[in-house]
């Protein structure tokens, strides 16, 4: 049985002339333990899709089955419990509370379960060990680097041991070094059995996914299985097709081309002179 199954899922925002069709009859099946990357241009519905799967919003039309049960038709209190116990969220902006230290930020979801302070602290500390931040337990978010803050956010998402981890541009605010650390961590979490759905604009991050979903205008327009360690073919094509080139890049390319053109005839003239002198 599929862990996640969407059938003709649609989401409409607004009314009348201001109506926006964010999702247009999306069909999607995700198996337990998959690492799925979701790509597409801005405004294509990627984040809306994650919000539907993460039970942060309800569809206007269609069906969302979570392990065969109608997830989107539950009462508000039941939806809140499902989100708390089965789904973890990692956002681009970390969303750590600035007045709480790292340990308390990570332990916060456990407070909503009624767990005692001592047990909360112990479990949060164990999760911080996994993400390599145990020595930063009593630091505040402002004292962390971007990569450390994102690892703390991942620890908070994992503290309830969720089956599904939803990551919306988890490396969007990080440099290449911190991005690699975070992605290696997500890959390790996936190997432990968690299902991961990640939105990204970076084709390089598809190296960590087993599958890439492509979206456009609220629809899924492609579904590609990938090999770990390789950039998805569709992502590579999409990147080079859509990536804008600056004037400096164009001028540098023209300059390099002119240099190559100029060196060819000069090298021939030098060859002829050498032949005559011989």
Structure, described:
The chain is of the alpha/beta class and 278 residues long. It has two domains: 4-100 and 162-243, P-loop containing nucleotide triphosphate hydrolases (Rossmann fold); 248-278. It has eight helices and ten strands. The chain has helices spanning 46-53, 76-86, 102-111, 117-130, 146-158, 176-191, 233-242, 247-277; strands spanning 4-13, 20-30, 35-39, 61-66, 69-70, 87-91, 164-168, 195-199, 211-216, 219-225. The strands form two sheets. It has a six-stranded mixed beta sheet with strand order 6-7-8-3-9-10, sandwiched between helices. A four-stranded antiparallel beta sheet has the order 2-1-4-5, with helices on one face. Helix 3 packs parallel to helix 5 (146-158) and helix 5 (146-158) packs parallel to helix 6 (176-191). The longest helix has 31 residues, at 247-277. It is globular and about 50 Å long. 35% of the residues are buried.
Secondary structure tally, helices: 8
Percent range of helical residues: 40-55%
Please trace the helix and strand order, writing H or E for each element. Answer: EEEHEEHEHHHEHEEEHH
CATH topology term of the largest domain: Rossmann fold
Strand-residue proportion: 15-25%
Q: Over the alpha carbons, how many angstroms does the gyration radius reach?
A: 24 Å
Count the domains. 2
In the sheet with the most strands, the strands line up as 6-7-8-3-9-10
Give the strand tally. 10
CATH superfamily of the largest domain, by name, is: P-loop containing nucleotide triphosphate hydrolases
């Amino acid at each position: 049985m599929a862990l996640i199954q969407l059938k003709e899922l649609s989401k409409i925002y607004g009314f009348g002339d201001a109506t926006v069709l964010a999702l247009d009859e999306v069909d999607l099946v995700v198996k337990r333990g998959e690492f799925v990357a979701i790509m597409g241009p801005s405004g294509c519905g990627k984040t809306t899709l994650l919000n539907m799967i993460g039970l942060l919003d309800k569809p206007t039309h269609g069906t969302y089955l979570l392990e065969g049960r109608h997830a989107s038709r539950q009462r508000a209190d039941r939806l809140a419990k499902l989100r708390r116990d089965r789904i973890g969220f990692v956002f681009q902006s970390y969303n750590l509370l600035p007045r709480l230290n790292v340990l308390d930020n990570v332990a916060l979801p456990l407070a909503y379960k009624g767990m005692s302070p001592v047990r909360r602290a112990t479990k949060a500390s164990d999760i911080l060990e996994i993400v390599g931040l145990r020595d930063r337990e009593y630091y505040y978010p402002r004292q962390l680097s971007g990569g450390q803050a994102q690892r703390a956010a991942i620890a908070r998402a994992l503290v309830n041991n969720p089956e599904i981890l939803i990551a919306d541009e988890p490396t969007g605010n990080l440099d290449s070094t911190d991005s690699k650390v975070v992605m290696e961590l997500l890959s390790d979490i996936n190997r432990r059995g968690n299902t991961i759905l990640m939105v990204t604009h970076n084709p390089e991050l598809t190296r960590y996914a087993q599958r890439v979903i492509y979206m456009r205008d609220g629809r899924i327009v492609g579904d590609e299985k990938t090999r770990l360690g390789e950039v998805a073919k569709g992502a590579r094509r999409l990147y080079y097709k859509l990536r804008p080139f600056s004037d400096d890049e164009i001028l540098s390319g023209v300059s390099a081309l002119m240099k190559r053109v100029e060196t060819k005839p000069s090298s021939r003239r030098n060859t002829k002179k050498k032949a005559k002198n011989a």
